[in-house]
Every structure is written in structure tokens, then in C-alpha cells.
């Protein structure tokens, strides 16, 4: 990195609110980093938290090093257009751009009159970046960067560089509603995988879970107190967008822990009430959690790689585009496509299907449920099952036993895939498959490798010795890619679904999670290694009714 001289920053800050942060201390010797590992360690540990000048110098260094578009507005552009007054500006003279979607400027220990400076910077940004159509996180980001800027012009240049960053595979700010909404969906997918207990709480208490998750960026950039937001900014500028996901997941984990400790009753309420409750928790998070603890929790989550998250985000973007949302689209309500008016099952209620839908990957949960097969209409024939279900991906299977127990599976892959194995029963599918049971309460069982990636690593060592193929890093496992993309031991942890003329099997490895005979009449359920599930109902059962639902207008991964 090119060395950047420390500047006189802090003129916008209300120092009475800054506690023991030093304004006047000179930057410590370490403001130029050549070792990325050391830079990450210092960012995560809060090395610059007590020294305002040092943090400012490091930030300027990081922002200057961002690869940007050839024509990126700089401080000189701002001075030419707005001037560069550090005196009081009237916010009403600089209305916030429409693309911030009503997001207010957080105080963040700034002087009251400094809010006008944030408005002025954002107003100039709107003029210089006409393609931005939705960016509600920009006011908090701008307010934070103003802390460590010598003047408005420098703050403008810093924000411009974040917006104009063109490093392949890296983004810092969502600038369209399409990108923003797909990020919300991606966050929902990550909650499914990494915070199942918190997600279960959301399903039990909120009428619209996706609406609750749409606030995730605001929790991190807007609702967190300044001392927390500044520490997040340290790692965000160093490690990128993925940090925001990590911190939001950690916030949700702490929120669930607080609710559990309080013994709050799990009653369904309007999503707005749940959103307000989480917002109040985040705004007062300092009462129960320190910034160090929040970041420690965030980085303890064994999250997918940046590449895998990007792939998931792109898949979600494509599903939104299928729903008619474009890059230039302004805010539009996007909701799960299940409601009592358009859904009728003989096995589950509209409420139960909404609970199941909330666990489905977000890009499919937007699709309309479509009944493909039911034994009550199409009869108990495996051939008819295949003929009605082939060509659809993914599908949802629901089973009610003669004892009244209800279970099922989300199956990510077209049943036609079974033909690849000829007459031989062979497994296929992806790590997005999961099992569930509905009584006494809904429980979901996902691919065991999601929670225990070391199992993939152990399985690979056996395969690698036999095939001589290079090992696959388990941190790069994508849950929506087929097991055949990896050197996984299919005999143990990647037996998702299989079928032939005699039976269908879901989940394998030392047992089958679901085995159903050719007459769709008798079944068995037992623990399997792929999903590490208990029996989903009575171990040997008779089927009273079986339904398969498709996802109208769904696009295969």
C-alpha cells in the first residue's frame, strides 16, 4: 500500500461522546501494512480503536488502494461543485437522495451540525453516480467515514471510491434494489444454514420472515452504536462485504440468546413488531455484549467462502429477475409466494406450509407452489409419480402416515436425473436437500456437511488416496452444487436421493432417512449419515397420503 500521511481529522466529531478515544495522539508507527495477515489481525482486534488519527490514516490508505473505475470523482470534483465548508450546513438545503429509501443519517457521535455535511456529501454523490437506484446503507457509511475525514471533500472521495470499486468478485455497497434484495435473500439462506435456532424463533414469531431479514444491513450499518459500528468498519474495509453477513448473523444469535434467557412466549405477531424488537436490541446491544464479543462471535461462524456467497447471490438475483425485477427497479415488495388463498393441501395447513417455505432457499421460496402429484388423485404408482414429477426442479414431498404423522423432504434435483445410473440405484442431488417432520413441532435436518465440513475433508482423504485427485477445500463447498463436483465419499455423506422402478430413497449412509416402496404404500425411516436425522415418524409406516409440490416458474441452479 502507498503510505498516506496522517491528516487533521475529527473536526466533525462531538468529542464529549467519544469516551477514551484519543483525538490528539499522533498515529502509532504502524499505519502502513504490507502483510495482509497482520492487517486482518489488527482490524479484527481493534488495534486502531483508541487512536483516531491512526484509524484515519489506515482508512485513507485502504481506500486509496481500492481498484476503481478510470473516471472516479475525487475531492477536487466535490470542491468544484459544492465547495468545502466545514461550517454548519442546513440539512434541508441538501435533501437526501431517493435511493437511500428514507434511511436517516445516524448521529454516530457526530456534532449536530455535521449531519448537514453528510447530507451535502450524499447530494453530490447522487449527482455523480446517476446509476445508483437503491442504496439505503449509504447514509451510515458516509456518516462513519466523515469521522475520519479532514473535510467533506475527502469524505466524498472515500465514499466515491467504495462505490466505484471494480475489483472482480468484490463489492462493498449494493447500488440497486436487485442487488439489495438478493443480498437479503442470501442472508436468509445463510441464517437457515448457520443460525437454525434463531431462524426457528423468527418462524415462530414473525408473520413474514423475509421482511424481518430485509433489515439485516440496517442492524449493522445504522442501528449498532458507534463503538460497535466503528469496529465493524475496521474489518469491513479490510475484508469486504462478507463481514456484514458475519456481523448480522452474530447479532441474530445474540438476539435469540436474549429472548431465550428472558423466557419470552413464542407468539405469532406482526412482522413490524418483531423488526422493532430486534432494532431495539441492536441499538442497546452494549448492555449485554461488547464489540470484541460481537466480532468474536461473527468470526467464529464457519461461513462459506466469498466465492460461494457470490454464487448464491447471483442465483438469487436471477430468481428475482425472473419475477420481473430489473437493475433499474426501485423498491418493490417481495414476499414469499404462499398464502391461504392460493394453497390447498390435504396434508398440511397454510400455516404449516408457510413454516416449511421459510426453510426453503430464498430463490425458490419466491415461487408459487404447484401441486404435481398426489396419491388421492393419481393413485399409488411409482411410475405415475415419476411421470408427474420429472422435469421439475426442485420439488417438495409431503407424507402423512396412517397414524397421522407428517414428514417430508425438500429435494433439490429433478427426478429424471435417476436415469443417469441406468437400472442401477444410484444417488444424486445436492446439499440443499433437507428432511423435516411436523410433530410435535417442525424440525429440519440438513446435509450433515453444512454443520461439519470436516466430514467432507475426512471423506476426501479416502477418495484422494484411491483416485489420486487433489483434495477439495471444504470451506469451498457449495450447498447448491451437486456432490459429483467434489471428491466426497458418496457412501457416507452425500447420498441425497435415489430412485428406480422398485423404490425411492431419500438420505443414505448406514440407513435410509426415507424408503418408499413401488406402490407408494409402505415406508421406512431411520437415521442416515447424510442428514444425521432421527426417524422422521414410526420407523415402519404405512402411507395414507403423499403429495409432491413443484415451484412454479422456478429456475434450476
Structural write-up:
The radius of gyration is 26 Å and the shape is elongated. The protein is built from 21 helices and ten strands. The protein has three domains: 15-20 and 35-164, no CATH class; 177-323, Orthogonal Bundle (Cyclin A, domain 1), CATH 1.10.472.80; 350-452 and 491-553, no CATH class. By secondary structure, the protein is of the alpha+beta class. May act as a GTPase-activating protein for Rab family protein(s). Involved in neuronal projections development, probably through a negative modulation of ARF6 function. Involved in the regulation of synaptic vesicle trafficking. It holds the Pfam family RabGAP-TBC. It is a peripheral membrane protein. Interacts with ARF6.
